[in-house]
Design goal:
globular; two-stranded antiparallel ribbon; single chain
């Protein structure tokens, strides 16, 4: 069996044991969410097919995010996951608190999106690429001092990601949003996105260790 990771879609997605683990984790979380939703939706009288479709759409975004090695694709995957959770948060349409939670989550999520996307633009300006491997090589080449722009870009990326996954100190929106969202969706939001965000943060480090070990 080949030990080299496989890439696809013009070197934007890499499949390796690290990403496959998070694929299985995200799918398992979505499965548990769906199974726990049957009785909840029946009691709340909001049974609807699009509910499950949105969960699956968000799962696709989480799986893409854990295997993407291109910042633009990571951004798209992050937004696929986020948009589905914006809608799912306000799925209890008869409850004003749920609509309020959805609106708050959407506004703060849009704010975080601006930070993340601006960080992607700045990192491209600093390194000339949005590919994680190429960015790593450019920043560790040692041919020139690390530009201040790279530090600013990294800060913007982590601020945007921190808002999305409710990392301290960007977690102030979570009480209001979790209070109004359906209970199974709270479980999904508090596990899946955080897991794939961890995968994104650790991907470059783990892949560099793997390359060093193989070399």
């Amino acid at each position: 069996m080949a030990k080299q990771p496989g890439t696809a879609f013009w070197n934007m997605v890499r499949v390796e044991p690290f990403s496959v683990f998070f694929h299985v984790l995200a799918i398992s979380i979505a499965t548990i969410t769906i199974l726990s939703s049957f009785e909840y939706l029946r009691v709340q009288r909001i049974r609807a097919g699009e509910y499950y479709g949105l969960i699956l759409l968000g799962t696709v975004g989480m799986c893409l995010m854990s295997s993407a090695i291109e910042l633009v694709l990571i951004f798209i995957a992050l937004e696929i996951s986020s948009i589905s959770t914006y809608i799912l948060t306000g799925f209890r349409r008869h409850d004003a608190a749920s609509s309020e939670s959805s609106l708050k989550y959407f506004l703060l999520g849009s704010f975080a999106t601006a930070f993340f996307l601006y960080g992607v633009a700045l990192i491209f300006g600093a390194t000339g690429s949005t590919n994680i491997d190429n960015i790593s090589r450019a920043l560790h080449s040692g041919l020139a001092p690390l530009p201040v722009l790279a530090y600013v870009a990294t800060a913007f990326l982590f601020i945007g990601l921190g808002f999305k996954v409710a990392a301290v100190p960007f977690h102030v929106w979570t009480p209001d949003v979790y209070e109004g969202a359906p209970s199974p969706i709270v479980g999904l939001m508090s596990t899946g996105p955080k897991a794939v965000a961890f995968a994104f943060c650790c991907a470059s480090c783990s892949r560099r260790i793997s390359r060093d070990a193989s070399g």
